[in-house]
Automatic annotation (TrEMBL):
This is 3-deoxy-7-phosphoheptulonate synthase. The chain holds residues 71 to 333 of 337 of the full protein. Keywords: Transferase. Transmembrane segments: none annotated. It comes from the Bacteria. GO terms for molecular function: aldehyde-lyase activity; transferase activity. One of its GO terms (biological process) is aromatic amino acid family biosynthetic process. Residues 21-257 form the DAHP synthetase I/KDSA domain. The gene is aroF. Signal peptide: none annotated.
Length: 263
């Protein structure tokens, strides 16, 4: 169902006043984790001012170590909702388990399935039944075919509002956190009508590489990016090393202008 052979025209996924897919390059931005009201509101204002169409922020965090910050949970969801109400920015946040789906649907506009859960089929079915827009991230070691089949689970459960996300894969290379697979973006754009976004933050894991790889994403034909930003990355509770500062986010948007403003 997600194949271009079934539907030739591009799917545009809408949530709130955001649209992903079609001619405009969509920038979704915000912190890795929601940490506090002050942190979230401050960064949300900055990314909105410079042209982000939606706010990202994790309330439930899939951390590699159980001793790392696990997210604010429901309090984080409430802050995301508040930011949306105050700024008019729809929100994207990760759902980690089936039991969280209904609750998250009340507070956020788009459900993220994280890389670690791409093959959690019960979760894919649950978000499919929810009908909320879903941002589906490629698994750390998943093939493109497996990503498409994961999307098929969501579609088959009744939800066609799916955004695919290339967020870097595991390779032998260790200089960067992951290897951003731009082949996958070009390939996916040919195979599927679903919008495809790139996550250059997790794709590289290095703040200084985020802007160049964002340009690359736009050049290769992605429908947008989801990018981490933090006004004080040194103090971030997760992924500070890959977060764009406020001035860097402004620079990113300057460089993406021709794509963001395309008719
Ligand atoms: C995230 O978006 O913060 C995240 C944990 O992403 P991924 O699932 O791609 O690792
Ligand atoms: Mn992160």
């Amino acid at each position: 169902m997600v194949s271009r052979e079934v539907q030739a025209h591009d799917t545009v996924v809408r949530f709130g006043n955001a649209a992903v897919g079609g001619n405009k390059f969509a920038v979704i931005a915000g912190p890795c984790s929601v940490e506090s009201e002050e942190q979230l509101m401050a960064v949300a204002e900055v990314v909105k001012k410079h042209g982000a169409i939606a706010l990202r922020g994790g309330a439930y965090k899939p951390r590699t170590s159980p001793y790392d910050f696990q997210g604010l949970g429901i309090d984080g969801l409430k802050l995301l909702q508040k930011a949306n109400h105050q700024l008019g920015m729809p929100t994207v946040s990760e759902v980690m388990e089936v039991s969280q789906v209904d609750l998250m649907c009340e507070y956020v506009d788009c459900l993220q399935i994280g890389a670690r859960n791409m093959q959690n089929y019960a979760l894919l079915k649950a978000v499919g039944e929810s009908k909320k827009p879903v941002l589906l991230k490629r698994g750390l070691s998943a093939t493109i075919e497996e990503l498409l089949l994961a999307a098929e689970y969501i579609y088959d459960a009744g939800n066609p509002n799916i955004i695919l996300c290339e967020r870097g894969i595991r390779t032998y290379e260790t200089a960067t956190r992951n290897t951003l697979d731009l082949n996958a973006v070009a390939y996916l754009k040919q195979r599927t009508h679903l919008p495809v976004v790139v996550d250059p933050s997790h794709g590289t894991g290095v703040r200084e590489l985020v802007i160049p790889l964002s340009r690359a994403a736009a050049a290769v034909g992605a429908d947008g990016i989801i990018v981490e930003s933090h006004l004080n990355p040194c103090e971030a509770l997760s992924d500070g090393h890959q977060a764009l500062t406020g001035p860097m986010f402004e620079q990113l948007m300057q460089e993406l202008k021709p794509f963001v403003e395309a008719a």
